[in-house]
Design goal:
Elements lengths: L1 E5 L11 H15 L3 E7 L2 H5 L5 E2 L4 E2 L5 E8 L5 E6 L1 H4 L6 E2 L2 E2 L3 H21 L6 E5 H14 L5 E4 L8 E3 L3 H4 L12 E2 L2 E3 H8 L2 E4 L2 H6 L3 H4 L2 H7 L4 E3 L27 H14 L9 E6 L7 H11 L5 E6 L10 H4 L2 E5 L3 H10 L2 E5 L7 H8 L3 E5 L2 H6 L13 E3 L5 H12 L4 H9 L5 H15 L3
Parallel strand pairs: 1-2, 1-9, 2-6, 9-10, 10-14, 14-15, 16-17, 16-19, 17-18, 19-20, 20-21
Antiparallel strand pairs: 3-5, 4-5, 5-6, 7-8, 11-13, 12-13
Length: 469
């Protein structure tokens, strides 16, 4: 099958959210299954900065509503082909969507241009008698491109994946021209949502199928308390909406081969985890108590836990016999703690992937603070590094782990219903740590199949269902 993917992010070259790693890993896994996969992306500085070799096409793409784009072609070692849409005035930026906590003011123009360029590119392929069998678009920039594609080629099978349902591409009504919305979708049956334009609404209605990274999230998309007016649109497409959890890239997330770790380990040989823990404690300046477990607390984006609540929670947690490392951006959760507690606690600002993997390898438990995560990457990577997750019983986290029973005969982590239950759930986890069954639980967690191979087969099956007979 000849598959076209359209996205704004692709790890490790340009990253802003969960789509980056998913698009990169899924495209590679599909190529390994024998499919021809092409990913179209805006040409951002990260591609050249990280050494990707690309070739410039001589003929630019002329867009019907003005402007021209230069096309660059590249191919990864996995066989995945990259097509980069180059327009320096739009994409020569430090970040994908914005800086300093806000979006770029010209995002409508930027991604409207990109979407139309994708449409022209695909039409050229069709005219050259080498059409794609299916298009798989990601998040609202991909949904915007899908509107261009469906307006010209409604028969093209299509799949829209929403990695973050909170980011829906919301713009003012006046932005329709900048977004280059096709006439077919420029009304209430397209992108209009109340007094705004919602790109995801149009994309969901145009797509033949929709996926999100969690079956629980898929079931809740029609909940107006969570998704507002967009819930009506999601409910209209409920029959063709599926929750498919993302996999993990084992080439990167593998404690048995991870060169960044002080000591490597696997599910059957976990001694190296103790060495990783000692190294992390020493680096953080914490007590090197051999029998004291290490809890890594990760406050994720839009967790709903503000600094005051996090400080209070840390104070409660440090009443237990544990070491605590808190990681996240812009937090000061330990400043008001007494000196006795501070000897057991440290703050680590969010770092790169290698830093996070070293912390996961050191941790016995990972507390994932995100009441309704659409993505369970922290939960899955914790499991991969034999760190037992503690997470809210909603969304993707609920799908990613099974709550442990009292005897630790079953389960792959610990679930809490709300933030008020976190301290009690941590105490339950600490009791498990002191149980003779703890090593068995740790091995069971580390043995979980979290690879992309199984996920890629699910997408392959979905692609085949979408193809016209």
């Amino acid at each position: 099958m000849n598959v076209l993917m359209v996205a704004a992010e692709f790890s490790p070259y340009t990253e802003a959210g969960p789509a980056a790693s998913t698009v990169a890993a899924l495209s590679r896994a599909l190529a390994q299954l024998g499919h021809e996969v092409t990913v179209v992306l805006p040409k951002c500085p990260g591609f050249e900065e990280k050494g990707l070799l690309v070739a410039r096409r001589l003929s630019p793409l002329e867009l019907p509503e003005g402007g021209a784009a230069t096309i660059f072609d590249g191919q990864l070692g996995s066989g995945v082909k990259l097509v980069l849409i180059d327009a320096p005035q739009f994409f020569e930026r430090a970040h994908v969507y914005g800086e300093a906590g806000g979006d770029y003011a010209d995002n409508a123009e930027r991604f409207g241009f990109f979407a139309q360029a994708v449409g022209v590119f695909v039409r050229q392929r069709q005219q050259q008698s080498s059409p794609y069998d299916l298009v798989h678009v990601h998040d609202w920039p991909g949904a915007l491109a899908l509107l261009q594609l469906k307006a010209a080629q409604p028969e093209l099978p299509s799949l829209l994946t929403l990695h973050d349902t909170a980011q829906v591409g919301l713009f003012s009504l006046e932005a329709a021209t900048a977004l280059r919305i096709p006439v077919r979708y420029a009304d209430v049956e397209g992108v209009h949502l109340g007094a705004k334009l919602c790109v995801v609404k149009g994309g969901v209605l145009a797509a033949d199928a929709v996926t999100v990274p969690s079956p629980s999230l898929a079931a809740d998309l029609a909940d107006e308390s969570r998704h507002g007016a967009l819930a009506v649109t999601f409910s209209r497409k409920a029959a063709v909406t599926t929750g498919i959890p993302a996999g993990l890239d084992y080439a990167l997330f593998n404690p048995a081969t991870d060169a960044e770790l002080p000591s490597r380990f696997d599910a059957e040989h976990l001694n190296g985890k103790q060495i990783c823990r000692t190294a992390a404690l020493r680096d953080a300046g914490l007590d090197l108590e051999i029998d004291r477990p290490l809890l890594l607390c990760v406050r994720e984006a839009r967790s709903g836990v503000d600094d005051a609540a996090l400080k209070s929670l840390c104070g409660d947690l440090l009443g237990n016999d544990l070491n605590l490392i808190v990681t996240g951006d812009g937090i000061d959760a330990l400043g008001s703690l007494p000196e006795s507690a501070r000897q057991k606690a440290a703050l680590k600002p969010s770092g790169n992937s290698a830093t996070q993997r070293k912390l996961l390898a050191a941790a016995d438990f990972v507390l994932c603070l995100s009441p309704y995560p659409g993505d369970a990457l922290t939960v899955r990577t914790a499991q991969r590094y034999a760190a037992v997750p503690i997470a809210g019983a909603q969304g993707a986290a609920q799908d990613a782990l099974v709550d442990c029973d009292a005897q630790l005969e079953t389960g792959t982590g610990f679930l809490f219903e709300n933030v008020g239950e976190v301290a009690a759930t941590v105490q339950r986890a600490l009791s498990a740590y002191r149980s003779p069954a703890w090593p068995r639980l740790q091995r069971r967690v580390a043995k979980l199949d979290l690879s992309w191979d199984r996920v890629a087969h699910r997408y392959q099956k979905l692609y085949r269902q979408l193809q016209k007979p």
